[in-house]
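User: Hey, quick favor. My workstation is busy. Could you predict this chain's structure for me?
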Amino acid sequence: MFENLQERLGAILNNLTGRGALSEADVSAALREVRRALIEADVALDVVRSFTDRVREKAVGAAVLKSVKPGQMVVKIVHDELVEMLGAEGETVDLNAPAPVVVMMVGLQGSGKTTTTGKIAKRITERQGKKVLMASLDTRRPAAQEQLKQLGEQTGIATLPIVPNQTPVDIAKRAVQAARLGGHDVVILDTAGRTHIDEPLMVEMADIKRVSNPHEILLVADSLTGQDAVNLAKNFDERVGITGIVLTRMDGDGRGGAALSMRAVTGKPIKLIGTGEKMDALEEFHPRRIADRILGMGDIVSLVEKAAETIDAEKAAAMAKKMQEGKFDLNDLADQLRQMQKMGGMGGIMGLMPGMGKMKDQLAAAGLDDKMFSRQIAIIQSMTPQERSNPDLLKHSRKQRIARGSGTDAAQINKLLKMHRQMADMMKAMGGKGKKGGMMRGLMGGMAQKMGLGGMGGMPDLSKMDPKQLEALQKQLGGAGGLPPGLPKGLPGLGAGGLPGFPGLPGGGLPGLPRKK
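Assistant: No problem, here it is.
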């Protein structure tokens, strides 16, 4: 979503940080480019003016221009103002009200309201242990009520039985009553949409609000519609009174202007963002993390959270034991590749890693993309159990058979086996065998000490770190100041160590990336 804006702002700010001193003219020239980049990203003009004025006011002060690293100070100011524009602190869906808590979903037709209703219900059920009832009030769109019923069956969440010829207002009354009698904690009302805002729609929304008394009114808006989404939010807020916004299709190739403008224009928080078609592709909106991604600083905290959600703790423990014994076969490699896919593939992970966003195109050109994972898994699945456990059995004739079965060739199989050997060697090194393991632990231990995270032979498990420690790690890896002095550019040990302690990945390394020479 923010890739184009990230590239533009990255180039502008890198030009500032590369200079030893800055004049007021340098800052003004850079802010003109920032303004142009934001306008091209479809950010509302009033928001752009306010943003650049606030940055200029803080950035041209003597304390900044005469500081030791003025360029980095300007980057920090841009980052902080970006966070402020996005809403400072993230807000979640508020369920602190007497049961049943009514959540009303509003928006135009085609924005993804019904699917988002199912996603939110699933999220509340799984994460907060609430009993949820979903009800479709859309009597206009063909099969809309049936669609929600199917989503309920798919996710195991109760839906209000369909009664033909009832009005949306009557359905809303029945849903609240059924939730109360059924002991449900939350009832989500999926209202009807239109292709555009009209008076009958607004009257219907107001009537539903009156009879159901919702605690939350969430506007579902398509982030790809740009400024139209902002105008939509203003209209709904004026007539119905929304409490928050859910942006869908944030995984698309839009310019991101709606997300950047929405909070500033409406004053209403963006609470959730849809990041894909699957029912678990819904994330909380964290302004600071989004700002970090836009400025190419990565998002270590989200990466850790995503890993914690997708990685099987028992498998991770078994892998750790194998690492200690220096064992790592092709079955283990296949497990690692599948976990990488669950976490969003190469693109999803690289986008969250500090300083790695700029390498996406280079990696794609080298063939290191998400399709690579599927090919490698297909190769491993075409092997016999004995071959997976003992790759040394793979001679020429066996490779030809595997190539035919997986739709690949011998060269790709050899690349996979080479990668496996490198990772197996790394397992032994991480297990404490040989000089290389000591070097790796020393490097990462020194890095951990510089961060104040403890240096007991390596970085601690990121999944066990508290938010303050994670923020310290985020700043060190992706902040304006870059990596601590004395460490190589980029992430140390990428492909041969990566982020030690990261659960489920072999030593944190990214499969498929070559060792650094």
